[in-house]
## 1
Amino acid sequence: MKQETAVSPAADLVEYYGKAASDVYFQRAQKTLAGAHVDAAVAMDFFSSKAGVLCGVDEAVRLLREILQEGDEAYAVPEGEPMGLKETVLRVRAPYSHFGVYETALLGMMSSCSGWATAAREIVEEANGKRVISFGARHVHPLIGPVMEYSAVIGGCAGCATPLGAQLAGLLGASGTMPHAMILLFGDTVKAAQAFDEHMPDDVLRIVLVDTFKDEAEESLRVAEALGKRLRGVRLDTPGERGGVTVDLVKEVRARLDLAGFEHVGIFISGGLDATRIREFEAAKSPIHSYGVGMAISSAPPIAFTADIKEINGKPMTKRGRIPGAAPNPRLQRVI
Amino acid sequence: MKQETAVSPAADLVEYYGKAASDVYFQRAQKTLAGAHVDAAVAMDFFSSKAGVLCGVDEAVRLLREILQEGDEAYAVPEGEPMGLKETVLRVRAPYSHFGVYETALLGMMSSCSGWATAAREIVEEANGKRVISFGARHVHPLIGPVMEYSAVIGGCAGCATPLGAQLAGLLGASGTMPHAMILLFGDTVKAAQAFDEHMPDDVLRIVLVDTFKDEAEESLRVAEALGKRLRGVRLDTPGERGGVTVDLVKEVRARLDLAGFEHVGIFISGGLDATRIREFEAAKSPIHSYGVGMAISSAPPIAFTADIKEINGKPMTKRGRIPGAAPNPRLQRVI
Amino acid sequence: MKQETAVSPAADLVEYYGKAASDVYFQRAQKTLAGAHVDAAVAMDFFSSKAGVLCGVDEAVRLLREILQEGDEAYAVPEGEPMGLKETVLRVRAPYSHFGVYETALLGMMSSCSGWATAAREIVEEANGKRVISFGARHVHPLIGPVMEYSAVIGGCAGCATPLGAQLAGLLGASGTMPHAMILLFGDTVKAAQAFDEHMPDDVLRIVLVDTFKDEAEESLRVAEALGKRLRGVRLDTPGERGGVTVDLVKEVRARLDLAGFEHVGIFISGGLDATRIREFEAAKSPIHSYGVGMAISSAPPIAFTADIKEINGKPMTKRGRIPGAAPNPRLQRVI
Amino acid sequence: MKQETAVSPAADLVEYYGKAASDVYFQRAQKTLAGAHVDAAVAMDFFSSKAGVLCGVDEAVRLLREILQEGDEAYAVPEGEPMGLKETVLRVRAPYSHFGVYETALLGMMSSCSGWATAAREIVEEANGKRVISFGARHVHPLIGPVMEYSAVIGGCAGCATPLGAQLAGLLGASGTMPHAMILLFGDTVKAAQAFDEHMPDDVLRIVLVDTFKDEAEESLRVAEALGKRLRGVRLDTPGERGGVTVDLVKEVRARLDLAGFEHVGIFISGGLDATRIREFEAAKSPIHSYGVGMAISSAPPIAFTADIKEINGKPMTKRGRIPGAAPNPRLQRVI
Amino acid sequence: MKQETAVSPAADLVEYYGKAASDVYFQRAQKTLAGAHVDAAVAMDFFSSKAGVLCGVDEAVRLLREILQEGDEAYAVPEGEPMGLKETVLRVRAPYSHFGVYETALLGMMSSCSGWATAAREIVEEANGKRVISFGARHVHPLIGPVMEYSAVIGGCAGCATPLGAQLAGLLGASGTMPHAMILLFGDTVKAAQAFDEHMPDDVLRIVLVDTFKDEAEESLRVAEALGKRLRGVRLDTPGERGGVTVDLVKEVRARLDLAGFEHVGIFISGGLDATRIREFEAAKSPIHSYGVGMAISSAPPIAFTADIKEINGKPMTKRGRIPGAAPNPRLQRVI
Amino acid sequence: MKQETAVSPAADLVEYYGKAASDVYFQRAQKTLAGAHVDAAVAMDFFSSKAGVLCGVDEAVRLLREILQEGDEAYAVPEGEPMGLKETVLRVRAPYSHFGVYETALLGMMSSCSGWATAAREIVEEANGKRVISFGARHVHPLIGPVMEYSAVIGGCAGCATPLGAQLAGLLGASGTMPHAMILLFGDTVKAAQAFDEHMPDDVLRIVLVDTFKDEAEESLRVAEALGKRLRGVRLDTPGERGGVTVDLVKEVRARLDLAGFEHVGIFISGGLDATRIREFEAAKSPIHSYGVGMAISSAPPIAFTADIKEINGKPMTKRGRIPGAAPNPRLQRVI
């Protein structure tokens, strides 16, 4: 599949956005207006239904660059900035016929991405500067997984799990340790850790998952003894059936590693983490190196965006219930 | 963009799912296992973290067909069926090396789609047999909009807004009336309605949006007088700033249309509808023809799915916290 | 009906208060005490069951002036002052036989009036200095409507709807715009407005009700165009079935009037307003000229008052559960 | 004061209702319509904002009889009947000019009275057939006290405290025992009881208030010994400072009276009673003879009534937000 | 310490109850009454402040047997029976001087014991017939620990932890497995289990605690392999820091034991269990053999008992607030 | 019964603590370890499950003095000090065989006593320096009543009701007034008060209970007139059936006593007092001399204590879920 969202959409994607993925009533409006020879220069404002972190507007502008024509204009608030409730974050000034059918795509890009970026921001702010890694690609359809991860990084995550997500976000590479499946196939965590150490390139961190077979504290000590100084950290991903990862568990594993002389081994945790739980760990000053977050970001609901015509041929005009005229917003920058 | 999800994924999509969109640690596990010459026949069970409507499993099976090899097996619960909490809905029996790196894609397909289908089912069940149309493509990224709409139809919606969504779901065509923008460009609802009537093919229903300029009851009567028997219905989409669509408004518009002899004109409503509000309309026996639903379906969170190895080389085996052995489930059908 | 409450009660009212409207057990006590030749100089304290605005005490004192005799004394806190919980606001020092049967009337005057004045004060304090007009006479029996309106003005209202209410409160005249009924009879808001303008004396403000037939914003513009500079304001009284009057509606009507050059037209709102809703409008800095308040004042519950004998023949004495002796209160002023 | 509400309003009351106590905007509408020579036969429906007991409609009809003219019609639901939410309980068919200015009075009569009757009904239904007496005249302005008591009887009370209230309601006489003040003046409950017994006519029940000086149980026994078989009952009105009247207190007083052979002495209670507390007494099968209720009835808020024009010159017509046309209601009876 | 509560209190205990442990004001009353030569035959009723399970009355009766004299009488509801709110469960008919100073002791025996028995009953009723063992002696002062355990058995527990508790309750012996301390001293659970098996008599059940060093599932298998058929069960007492004992943990341990062929090994759980948690286990049909309960029984608050004189020299008499006369109760049986 | 807890436990109590009242599994562990010739020097830490006031540790140390041997060590936080959540308040360093079987007793002493002391402290802190007397011995089994009272005094109570409780706490004597039973036997409160005055030694305060027969205010005046300057105070213990003791009652009794010239008579209250109610009295600046508190202290739940081995033969070691090694606590003082 062609995925060129970081540069400019391929021609077939532009066509897809304007036809296959566009609400059919925009296409019917286009046909009706053309049949009646009605068109006009409009100012259309895009704004969100709640405050948050704006994301997806860069991709929207890239699409507009493909479809707007000479003399048309667009203004936008920059990607990753905070946005206020109903604040205009994108404005298009152009004949309606130039871009009307793309409204579905333009709104959708900002809705999904801002939802994920806003959730990520809320979580990252609880982490007190510690690294938060997005691990939730598995909870969204793979067509959109890398875009979700890009949005999480815009929201403040330090890393993400898929190679394309990392590439879209301009990171050096994706982040990850090892799955339970691999350890099960080796039948023993220490054997799995040794094989991983042998076959991975040096730039892959040696972080070993320690909850597959044995008590986490016991397994951490076994792995630390086996890999010694090469071990960068252990990952705790204790399942809910075993109480999940808790402040007490982290404290104890840290204490037992230290007692055995393994102060160099970091602790990485994952499993059902969200803003509330990270706040608890930080409030308890848990000796955690970084957090892996899944559903709390990937299941964040989209933030609904709306596009309203506010001027027609230079005159304030809008539908009932809204204020006519393009609302002044000094944060808008000319982008086209 | 190539979108062949209803048939079988194109080759470049398969590669995309296994590399660009796959969690990197599965790729590292693949390399480590290969380097250590470790592999085994496994039974891997896929199950969800809550009850709902299973969706996306058909697409998952299409992907498995591309990657599994002779002798491998797969079993699934049928698309659109209810699924229980932690019930195994997909089982793969194959050497781990044949499909391990696709876990991200397989889980993601079912997570997103089941989330949307489950939300749609809940809403449709409140509607007492009236048609519910999915109008929420605009709230999700356009790469995934048609898939969301397909899932909404699997969940019970009678129609959806995008042409590709309709095609994936096997519908005759997409559904839609007219946007506020078109009416604003015409400057008058009656003029817009007349042009729409003139330029649309006969199979497009004449349903006119009546809240753009005037009071809905007044506008409904104006439109009904202008289009007469050709008018199929009016759509109420009153903005929240004007109180939204309410039971009282629908009742009054119905009464005024009837008093004027327009019993043939149906009432279609949209705007922030969800299960709770539809239940209220139905409890009040509102004379509504069909419901247009957006965010309540399109913003539904994905339902997390998990994949666990349950057997290795025929022996029950799994990680700590889970029950070893493939759980018997008579609802699973052999699909590969 | 003779209504002279602002001066002194007519003789037949005094008799009415002491017989027809007096609790019969006071009349029986009077007869028993007289039969047994028992009487005594008492100090009787009147106090309320909760804090609020004292109202009705002036009328009570006027009644006492008619019934007390030479040498009797009365003390009161001034009308319209705040009163504390259980604070003595009226004290009578006289033989019990002089006034015992009027206890029902004295308590009732203060109970009803203080209830209304207290509610009005609470609302007026939310309005940030904007005018609040009492419009609730229709919710109370007409025998008491003007007294309710008098109390609302004591509580802080700038105007009220009935001529006698205005007279009792010392206002120049009653306040009011036009009812829906008049507009319905004219069949069009503009025609009604023009007739109103033609037939009303100049001192009646031209404020036109704009929600009878059409969308309020549309109708406001039609009326403003018709009356021009003579139009003082529009009144929004949108029914609940249409969402009621909201912050957004006011903001939009203001914007559309201003865009059309009608900055001189004020906005008056009414319909289910109470302290909470006025606080919301003021918090949103709504461009509102004045508030019309009905039920929130007129349905305010009375505040129960109690009268206790505290001294008999100069000695502290009272019933079980109360503190004997007239409680010192420097706010009491000699009134008789 | 002339109070003829049970027969027909005196001429000066009719004028008072149409001028002094009428919302001024009805009078302005009257003048405008007359100036513009606009009038029409209308059907005006009166309905309440919540379900309850209809009261005050008889008085409203008596007023209409004074003002309607030959050929005009009125229909009403009978006084004291239950009424539904928004059910039309009064309909006038007449030229608007005949009755428009009386809308304030007509609504107000039904609002206040229905509020009180509804509260009384709710309380009486909890009392399991025991007598409930309205004692709350003291909490409302004396101009309206007897009307409140009339409404309480319509709602189901067996008696009330003021002579005029009793007369309006068609009772033989008002109900009452003796006030604390009388006992304080006698200085001893037994002396007060003996004087009361001596000076009251035989048809006044000998019920003695027993909480003024001593413990209620002790005082009950003293009084019973003093009056013997002539004592009909004791009234408990224990103040909140002493815990109020409770189930336990009633039970104990009953037991101590019975132990001493005074089974014939009934127990009457009062003091802050409402539906909830009466339910508690009845649930505990308290041996209570009758309940005296004050604030729970007299402070009941009015129930807002609304009057809407529903037809003009025979054609369905009404304001925005309402259903045009007089709503059919088989419970309406022709009264004029 | 002499502990003869199951037979009759030793002489020094009787003296202790009447002096050292008796409220001093009873002793002062005794001296005052004697000095004034006042005494009388009384009926004193003992009743509780809430419903529950009566316990401690047997001990109270044993004390009364030591102190009452010829001709005195006592009546009681049997030990372990349900008791109602304020139901008389013990009645003494005797001269007050015979037993007045023992009121503190008599009340205290029933208060503490009924509190514990009531809590135990509530828990046992949730356990669906499975054995509940009282393990909470460690949470109460050791002077009272065995009495608490006796009460728990009266409430329905099948066993308790202290030898004297078991003896008082008539059980064959105390219940217990092994403490963490013992396993820590052995340094390995298997070694500890083998030593326990070697040194314990045959009538001690081989139940091994499996959460000291390793994951519970892993340790259960190790122990089962070591002891084979001699192993009666494993005890799960997982600390809160590791998530506590959960439904999922029990289910998994059961499954792994069964897969390995150890169906004969039972599962015993403890650690913070109360009625709510036992209900959850039973609702989930957890394969649990028996429950060990501590704090939920041992920290149960005492149930306050009161003793009231109800008759003096055969006449009904009591203090204010209570009903005079001994209340009839057919459940009372003559015990002295 | 031998009760020497304030000095050192008698030999038979030591044996009782180690056998009859010890959890049997400690005795089995002792036997198993001895059989296997396993023992070790351990550090065992005792800590509580919530913050509070430490009490019972003195008694625990007295027990340890009887059982530890030469070279063994113990450290403790002082009796009556605040203790933190999980803070080590007692540490024993000795071979496990020296003290293992006494764990039940050691924990139980601190659990019960700290529960009572903590509740007392919370209540005393609300009383603003006024005296709080523990009156709750009657709610706990008499074997433990004096220990409860000792704990209440450690928590801050100024007095207690039982002679042994007072002795354990080092007070001069127990506190108490007179019971209702004594007054009932005299048949009149004044007679009872006079006899009490005659027969009690001078050091017993003349405080008379005034709610037995008459209204408290009336009875207070009668008693004050009878005893004059010898009367130190009245006690209000009004039963709940009569509303209990309230702020208003105290205020009125104070006012009536003062009006009659009895300013020297103090007011003592009791009856269902707890921290919340005392806070209300103090907030109202009630003129109260001292508070008698029962259930609010005596029914306080024990605070669970835990004992963990933290070192074995000098090496950090503990069970899963806990941090190995004796936690440093500078508040610990060497006591053995």
## 2
Amino acid sequence: MNRVVWPLTALLVIAGGIAHYAHAPVLVVFILACAGLIPLAGFMGRATESIAAHAGPRIGGLLSATFGNAVELIIGIFALRDGLTDLVKASITGSVIGNLLFVLGISFFVGGLRHPIQRFNIRAARSNASMLLLGICVAFLIPAIFTMQPAAGGMAVSGATAVMSLLIYCSGLLFALFTHREVFEYIEQAEQEEDPGHHWRLWPAVLVLLITTVLVSLESDWLVGTIEVVGRQFGWSDMFLGVVVVAIVGNAAEHASAVWMAWKNRMDLSLEIAVGSSLQVAMFVAPVLFFVSLMVGHPMPLVFSWPELVSMGTAVALVVVLMVDGESNWLEGAMAVGAYAVMAVGFYTLPA
Amino acid sequence: MNRVVWPLTALLVIAGGIAHYAHAPVLVVFILACAGLIPLAGFMGRATESIAAHAGPRIGGLLSATFGNAVELIIGIFALRDGLTDLVKASITGSVIGNLLFVLGISFFVGGLRHPIQRFNIRAARSNASMLLLGICVAFLIPAIFTMQPAAGGMAVSGATAVMSLLIYCSGLLFALFTHREVFEYIEQAEQEEDPGHHWRLWPAVLVLLITTVLVSLESDWLVGTIEVVGRQFGWSDMFLGVVVVAIVGNAAEHASAVWMAWKNRMDLSLEIAVGSSLQVAMFVAPVLFFVSLMVGHPMPLVFSWPELVSMGTAVALVVVLMVDGESNWLEGAMAVGAYAVMAVGFYTLPA
Amino acid sequence: MNRVVWPLTALLVIAGGIAHYAHAPVLVVFILACAGLIPLAGFMGRATESIAAHAGPRIGGLLSATFGNAVELIIGIFALRDGLTDLVKASITGSVIGNLLFVLGISFFVGGLRHPIQRFNIRAARSNASMLLLGICVAFLIPAIFTMQPAAGGMAVSGATAVMSLLIYCSGLLFALFTHREVFEYIEQAEQEEDPGHHWRLWPAVLVLLITTVLVSLESDWLVGTIEVVGRQFGWSDMFLGVVVVAIVGNAAEHASAVWMAWKNRMDLSLEIAVGSSLQVAMFVAPVLFFVSLMVGHPMPLVFSWPELVSMGTAVALVVVLMVDGESNWLEGAMAVGAYAVMAVGFYTLPA
């Protein structure tokens, strides 16, 4: 497959660059940048995983936890530079609900078509459940609620939340990789049982990571430059663009592997990708982007709109209840996808 | 008992008809229509069950799932014809919280007086828990949140929600009756162990169903015609009338049998009635009434008021936590009834 | 230790009295009153426990359930006398989130440093979970939601809620002490295994209870008199003072013993203190203060502000998920403390 994907990706990046610098119609640049980012994100993720596999479970875990959502971080940084704070928050929302409802839902559904009941580690599911509640419901609801009154506290509460989220995220790594490693050993084992030829050798992986990071940055720059014009052309709000378009572009590769794992009845890996990715966006990418926003001079308080908050909150509640019994089936997958579909229509109808 | 109930019902229907056509005081018509609907709903339910028992578990399951809340559907259609959309939504709310908190609460309480701890199927309870979250919290919250801003999206999001709810409701039937029947077999068994003389023969049941449907339609017509005047006389809001009065009239017969099952320690059947009925109203009756509202020219977006949404949301949260351990006792029943009582007082105090 | 604490407490009370009657700077009175209340609350709690131990498990249970939060009740009564209803509600909020997040969090964290995984009775945890949902989420959300519209129903719904909470609280005692005692026997046993020399003899305990009640009343009177001036001096809102300062003063002694129990791996006692105390404040102290507010002529509807409601609601949700698996570890403790920290910053930023 790589024989097709590599040249195609190169072609897409080159075409995107030409379109951007030759001032092609904005829609063309937009589509080429989106199309180029999807395989680049995939290569970047695989390079990170390969380096992590060589670095051993602990350093490897830290690497995945830091660079696992690098594409979203890079797009976010470029969007913040242009002051598109609503778009950045919407893409965080989109990553959270997309991973929790769409990716997990499709995984449960597709896996459930082949296996009547699929089981996964119940202790990890419960640990994830409380992390989701803290990192998404508490961390995003508190700044919104405390800035409802015309107070000046938005940045202070956002800052406190960002620091808390990062601290707890690091504590979670300490817990999973050091103090309570045995609880999560089943994931390491499952990963090792996976096709070992999947990983690249160390130095090629580092090279791929470096090159893709540069290319992703270029593409993100081009994408961000077009997004407002495209929104105006189609009558789409920043929120719809962020929640649906940017979130899908940044996560497409992960989506594919989560579903593939579920099809092979490796639900622990599937959950790890979908839920782990949501947590990483909420508790690592979002706080880091908050501090970046201070540095680039477009401060972005972590105050989400009510549609975003309620979408994320109900997504967490639904996934917690679906996950907490350690079992899944196709109906549970259909429920999660149904909830996602309704939210996507909702964001589509928001005025631009 | 039937020797008393049949003639009494006939008498109530005739008296209601005379009162309606002779333009008796509105309050008399209202009370007679309510009193007549209660036993009619009971006969209708029993006829549906009898036909379902003859049709075998699969077709029977589909029948119960479609006609199980026919009375509420009929009252809703007549109320929509008169443009009483707030009343219709309030009666949906009332059915949901009435079944979840009042019926389940009384069942847990009464059953718990006789049996210190009552147990029920934990897998079905968890499946119900996620359905409740999706069909009530997600499906009703999303349209409300996305139409907070002065957008024109109310009908679009409501439509998407209605389609999603119907699809997932049908998926749930497919799941319970076809792909995962063995999970729910314990209910079929429990039903078969119940008094087999309870069911009527096929053709008498069909006849009763036809006749009661006609009578329920008549009574609903009379009831709906009086409800606004009665509300004004007593200073009751549409919402109180819908949440408390209409919801009790439409569900009284089911209430009685759920409590009776709990008293006999058949908690699976009791839960099936109470929770199943809530789900049916939220995921089948509500979306069907949405489409009916489009046809009769009084469009009713599925946008509930905040008191309704919070009542339904907290009812679901409480019931999920009460249910998810697969056990009940009298204190859990008292909690649910207490929550219902506070909500009923709340709706009573709303301005007309 | 007592050899130091008794005289120190006496000294603090006397110094507080002198400062109050000599019209010392308000900040001095405030600090001395806070400092005096902390050990007094500790003695009062220990006297109550000792009397309860002599009175046998049933009467003793009733005693603890009634006088366990006497300090907060007394401060609340004095604050209501002065019409400081916002402060009273904030101190209720502070007790709830302080006990649920801070005390439980520190207990889980400190206990978890010594014991990798700590276990507690899962049935009691689930019973507590539904009580928390009812007594905090339902009971406080319903009055707030039903008085959003400019209705006159605030007091009626608050009254209904207060009556319901008291009834269910008493039902809970009936359940735990009479009808289902065996479920909670493990707590009695754990208590008896605790250092038996911890309890005082009956009459000294009664004497201590009487004297400390008088002293707590005096100190509360002095504290309440200073609190508004102190708030203005520091630019703190009533809400921050209530949520953080008053709540910590009233609960410091319990905090210490909950953490101490966790350190000794007696998680059932630790949970009983932290969660039991939250429930007692929400379902006993709050309704009693509501009725007191009617008597002293400063009616206080149980309508909390949105920051308070959301803080309490997310605290309950997080604790329910942390608790419901019957296990804890240091990371779960860190999560709860992190949530508390963010909320405290939020209340700090509210305008005075």
